[in-house]
Amino acid sequence: MSHPKTAIVRVKGSCSPEGNFQYSLNWGCKDHPNNYKAEISGFHDIEMVELHAARTAIKMAKKQKYTKIRILTEPTIVWDFIKNSANFANAPLQVRSMVQAIHAHRQFIIIKVKLIDGKENIEN
Questions:
Q1: Which SUPFAM superfamilies match (predicted)?
Q2: What angle separates helix 46-63 from helix 93-105, to the nearest 10 degrees?
């Protein structure tokens, strides 16, 4: 029988001085193969970029057969959307599909979310 695998992932959305949005996934150590950073278009605020990053991390963890993921995020709104994803129908239209996708993954992986400040480090 395989042991349960838990991922702890710090998600971060940001905007460059030129106005380009990007996100990063930190899986707890500098050289983790799932660490990821990318530019992204089609978003107009950092919170929604960070919600996209959380959804991406959840999809990666599910695909890699993790049984549980803990998302670490700074924005309260991102924490709320993930924590209350069962209420996706009440989410604003521009994020409803992302929140619904996060909720749909709950049938395959346990999703927890923790609100952190920007100085908090993570360790797996």
A1: Ribonuclease H-like
A2: 20
Which amino acid, 44?
Answer: H
By the 8 A CB rule, do 42 and 52 touch?
no
What region does 101 belong to: left with phi over 0, alpha with psi -120 to 50, or beta?
alpha
Please give the Cα distance from 84 to 102 (Å, whole number).
10
pLDDT tens digits, 42-79: 888 999 999 999 999 999 999 999 999 999 999 999 99
Helix (H, G, I), strand (E, B) or coil at 14: strand
- For 99, residues 6+ apart whose C-beta sits below 8 A from its C-beta are 51, 81, 82, 85, 88, 91
CB atoms within 10 A of CB 122: 15
What pLDDT, in 10s, does the model give residues 7-40?
A: 999 999 999 999 999 999 999 888 999 999 999 9
Residues forming beta bridges with residue 9, ordered by sequence position: 71
In which region does residue 10 sit, left (phi positive, over 0), alpha (psi from -120 to 50) or beta (all else)? beta
